[in-house]
Amino acid sequence: MARFKVGVQLRPQHCEMAQLRAAWKEADALGVDTIWTWDHFYPLYGDPAGAHFECWTMLAAIAADTSHARFGALVTCNSYRNPDLLADMARTVDQISGGRLILGIGSGWFERDYTEYGYEFGTAPERLRALRETLPRIEARLAKLTPSGANIPLMIGGSGEKVTLRIVAERADLWNSFGPAENFAHKNSVLNEWCEKLGRDPGQIDRTVMIGPDEVDSFEDYLNAGATHIIVGSDVPFELKAVERLLQHARG
Q1: Would the pLDDT of 3 be above 90?
Q2: How confident is the model at residue 252 (pLDDT cuts 50, 70, 90)?
Q3: What 3 state SS string does 152-178 have?
Q4: What does the longest C-alpha to C-alpha distance in the chain come to?
Q5: 76: which DSSP letter?
């Protein structure tokens, strides 16, 4: 069985900050390859008025609290921050961590975030176009900064076959999508087709997939579908037994 990477996404909703901090410290101690949060302003499910925390201030805390795992947002919404500022934030968080940040980004989709915080929601094609236009700005700013952030890996989340996967093939070091395994396999093949058209080595892109704790023992289905990096989603109380089990599978 091929070696694969293991990650966990700790969802910052309906919990206390102390629980999140304990969870990412535990995950780091377990030896996960990656630790993730998400970039929203309100819970995605459960009580819509429940507790929730902001992404990039949490990433700075993860950078300081952990020592080994790479980490990032799965994924940052491109619409919420000026791209040059986002690049500087990412570079700074990366420096705090000693070079472990992954800059995950996507075009955005959660309308409540936009309307409550005063961003223009627009249409999906408009948000995708904005992502495509701002990525070069982010990359340019990362390279200009002192110290530089040019070596921070870029993850793009999404599975749109005509635009998103082309952007992944053009620019990304990692790509994230979702199951079921048959769906992931199809999207993975489309990404490979884009890589062939654009002259990109498909092996340069780490293929990450988000799964639920109940899917851990079906991990081989995702490996057979092309995944190289499996991320387990975790909600409060952040029970990491499924992550431990997946690590055992990964280590053979």
Answers
A1: no
A2: confident
A3: CCEEEECCCCCCHHHHHHHHCCEEEEE
A4: 49
A5: E
| Rounded-to-integer distance, Cα 179 and Cα 171, Å | 23
Sign of CA dihedral 58, 92, 135, 102: negative
Residue 84, helix vs strand vs coil: helix
We report the CATH number of the domain holding residue 113 as: 3.20.20.30
Q: Domain total for the chain?
A: 1
Tell me if 147 sits within 8 A of 95, measured CB to CB. yes
Task: State both tokens at 100.
Answer: 């472990």
Q: What is the identity of the amino acid at 59?
A: L
Q: How confident is the model over 133-174, as pLDDT tens digits? A: 999 999 999 999 999 999 999 999 999 999 999 999 999 999
CA–CA separation, 222 and 207 (whole Å): 10
Q: What is the DSSP code (8-state) at residue 75?
A: T
Residue for token digits 């409550």?
116
CB 137 within 8 A of CB 145: no
Domain that includes residue 142, residue range:
5-250
What is the C-alpha separation between 41 and 119, in angstroms, rounded?
A: 12
For the chain, the residue count is: 252
Nearest to 188 by CA among 198, 176, 200, 171: 176
Q: For tokens 């620019």, name the residue.
A: 171
pLDDT digits (tens, 9 = 90+) for 65-90: 999 999 999 999 999 999 999 999 99
Ordered DSSP codes for 204-233: GSEEEEEE-GGGGGGHHHHHHTT-SEEEEE
Interacting residues of 133 by C-beta distance below 8 A, sequence separation 6+: none
d(CA 94, CA 251) in angstroms, rounded, equals: 27
